[in-house]
Amino acid sequence: RNAIDTFILHRLEDNGLTPAAPADKVTLIRRAYFDLTGLPPTPAEVDAFVADESPAGYERLIDRLLASPHYGERWARHWLDAVRYAETNSFERDGAKPHAWRYRDYVIRSFNNDLPYDEFVREQLAGDEMRPATPERLIATGFYRLGLWDDEPADRLQAQYDVLDDLVTTTGQVFLGLTINCARCHDHKIDPIPQRDYYSLLAFFHGIKPMQTVGPNIEQPLFADDAQRADYQRRVRQHDERRDALQGKITALEHEFTAKYRQSQNANIAAGDIDDLEYRFYRDHWERLPDFDTIKPETVGNIADGCFDIGLATRESDFGFVFNGLLKVPADGDYTFIVDADDGVRLNLAGKTAVYYDGIHGTGNPQRATVALKQGLTPIRLDYFQALGGRGLSVSWSGPGFDQRPLAADGRRQLEGRNLKELLRLHAARLLGDAWHAGYRERSKELERLKREPVPADYALCVTEMPHPPDTFVLSRGNAHVPTVKVEPGFPSVVAVEQPVMQAANGSAAPGATTTVPASSGRRLVLANWIAAADNRLTARVIVNRIWQHHFGRGIVRSPNNFGFLGERPTHPELLDWLAGEFIARGWSIKTLHRLMMLSSAYRMSSRANDAALTRDPLNDLFWRFNMRRLSAEEVRDSIYSATGNLNRRMYGPSFYPQLSAEVMATQSAPGHGWGNSPPGEQARRSVYIHVKRSLITPLLADFDFPDTDASCEARFATTQPAQALGMLNGRFLHEQAAAFAERLRREAGAERAEQVRLALRLALLRPADEAAVARGVRLIERLEAEHGLGGDESLTFYALLVLNLNEFVYLD
Predict the structure, then answer these.
(1) Using the 8-state DSSP alphabet, how is residue 114 labeled?
(2) Separation between Cα atoms, residue 352 and residue 346, nearest integer Å
(3) Global pTM?
(4) Contacts of 301 (CB under 8 A, 6+ apart)
(5) What is the mean pLDDT of the segment spanning 154-158?
(6) Are strands 274-283 and 376-386 parallel, antiparallel or unpaired?
(7) Neighbours of 276 (CB within 10 A)
(8) How far apart are CA 459 and CA 453, in angstroms?
(9) Quick count: other Cβ atoms within 10 Å of Cβ 225?
(10) Burial, 648: exposed, middle or buried (Cβ in 10 Å; 0-12, 13-18, 19+)?
(11) Between 576 and 792, whose confidence is greater?
(12) Is 13 helix (H, G, I), strand (E, B) or coil?
């Protein structure tokens, strides 16, 4: 039927094999629907196709499916596998990546719009550097933020290079089919890729601003046009003016308080009351104050100005301190100590506990203790731990000859303008009156709100870059702390015809750019243009191979991410070359490529085997038949909703959260954290819109081989294992859907058992039910009622469950 068949038939004839017979029309329409949309056809659509005897009927079917908006949903999921798409960061907290769903929607729209693949590549690698700037191009650069991110690494520099390695790895494997990452620590052992080439490629990404939880490094507002942008900028200016004016008023009030407080003090606040003060710092989470003497500290040090300072912590929460020093007691007498802490604290004087304030509670309930001390130096120790929430520690003392003065940095340094909140809380009403203090608090709350709440807009998870990237060095054995020779941005020499000439990173036009690129080096656009160039020997072959893989069950190269020596050799190299050339010649159109492949006789073959071919080519390397496959995890779930008639086909927007059992939620480090509660109608949406949380993959998807999102997935496993049958037979979701399926059968087929069974098989299997199968179904329902005492509704529900578990329901011929 087309040139593809010439290549396939030539190899078959050379090996004495003949192609399988054409698939029947029911098999063919089911195959085409699932391949292009991931959904089954309706019985009416099957009947119409079977009845259409025109030669162009199948071609019209393919065109209609390619025009379906559900095409993008199906093929976006293949791409999301490759680019390690998830909406959370992994590691212990597995925090959410803000607005990640917009990248998913971008991919869906790109496939539906048949965005030329070379543009698709450029937008993801350098959309922010392309002109004209568009929201879609900015969203596309979310590609850079999809990987793992440790928000609390033990070695921050090494973690930074781990993130860069993820980008090198994903870019190399997904776009080029090269395992460049194997050269991170040494020259590639198999492919001719030296370590220097790895770091030259890394240099293209070195200027990317680091990942963070939220903020301008990873979030940027989106504008449909210049008017929308101007309106946003106007609202930002107004917001900033309100914030700055309010900050000015608060600063004036704080100066007023500071002067009053200094006047009330009879002692030299700047004088250190503790000598030889040292600290030990710990990182962990506690609910109660631990015995720090049994734990190894992370860091130790001295504090020159002699005050307890939790500002030395290297994290916002989950840390502890032990402070030891000598308190300078000016005279014999009774001294009062006042301690307020956000969480647990213990104050010891001369080895005896004076204040013990344990647990997680927050500030606002100071503890007091009066201790008799002798003049001279008295050993003082303070233990403190901070759990989640805002940090806070206030320690002060008073005694003969002086009023209350602070021993902690939150007291001393407040008078230096760093943080007055605690002193204001303790003394403002006394010194300036309740009305003054209330006014100050009200303004402070309003200021915090203005700082915390951004100007409303749609935001994208995206890349941002420093205009002047740091220098890049080859790292000895991949150790970030052992740089060796400096390298410039460069393409892998094994495939590059020539190397780039980089311009100064000053916002001038980068090679290949049509205009200047502000606030960016322009490096990534140079890389993107090289990868997406028609003369790149890998890019077109790699994507053509992926498209073939998802239509025919495996790639012409069985290792889609590895075209190197450790990858599989292509079974039909001439066909791959020809397809790549046609793909470029036809404008990098993926839809055109689908059409070319699916209109071939090779695609329309039956999956039936014959003994001679099985003996000679058991793996079907020569494509003498079509490869049967099981439905993917998403196709299984979506087909169940299709059978019940309850599939919500609404497209795009934030992800939804399927209902999970308490046992599944408990598998997280923080059970249930970060998992929402979507309404039933939202939960019936297509599986591509499920929230992808790395530490909490939806069990039904996991059972049916949803990919590991930690790295690029070149091809999903297709396992057959007990969890699948257990979930499909015993799982709550399947029982709920079986009941909904049974309700549809009663509603549409009436009360006659044979008609209910006939409709169930028709809806699930998309072919007319044979009478023997109908009779078996009726007998089963009757046995459930007669021998097991089930009611009519319950027995039909169990039959509906059986139908959803048929092999024919979850396999494609």
Answers:
(1) T
(2) 10
(3) 0.79
(4) 278, 279, 281, 312
(5) 92
(6) unpaired
(7) 12
(8) 13
(9) 9
(10) middle
(11) 576
(12) helix
The residue-averaged pLDDT of 666-685 equals 92
Measured in degrees and rounded to the nearest 5, phi and psi for residue 396 equal -140, 165
Continuous segment of H or E residues that includes residue 432: helix 421-432
- Stretch 6-28: mean pLDDT: 97
pLDDT band of 194, cuts 50, 70, 90: very high
d(CA 347, CA 379): 11
The tens digit of pLDDT for each residue in 538-579 reads 999 999 999 999 999 999 999 999 999 999 999 999 999 999
Per-residue tokens: 72 = 């993008």
End-to-end CA distance of the chain: 21
From the list 521, 485, 519, the residue with the least C-alpha distance to 502 is 521
- For tokens 């065109």, name the residue: 63
**β-strands 376-386, 393-399: how paired?**
unpaired
User: Cβ atoms within 10 A of the Cβ of 438, count?
Assistant: 12
Residue by residue, DSSP assigns 296-364 as --SEEEE-TT-SB-GGG-SSSSSEEEEEEEEEEE-SSEEEEEEEEESS-EEEEETTEEEEEE-SS--SS
Six-digit token pair at 668?
Answer: 């997280």
> SS3 breakdown of the chain: % helix, strand, coil, rounded to 5?
45, 15, 40
Weakest-pLDDT range from 38-47, 331-340, 441-450, 587-596: 441-450
DSSP state, 478? G
> Per-residue pLDDT tens for 206-223?
999 999 998 889 999 999
**For residue 18, what are its two tokens?**
């003949």
- Buried-state track 564-599, b at ≥16 Cβ within 10 A, e below 16: beebeebbbeebbbbbbebbbeeebbbbbbbbbbbb
The two structure tokens encoding residue 36: 């292009």
Q: Which value, to the nearest 10 degrees, does the dihedral of the CA atoms of residues 752, 756, 759, 760 take?
A: -170
Q: List, in sequence order, the alpha helices (H) in 521-598.
A: 523-531, 539-552, 573-585, 590-598
**Which phi and psi (to 5°) does residue 86 adopt?**
-155, 165
Calpha distance 351→128 (Å, rounded):
61
Q: What are phi and psi of 645, to 5 degrees?
A: 80, 10
Tokens 């004087």 correspond to 349
Average pLDDT value over all residues in the chain: 91
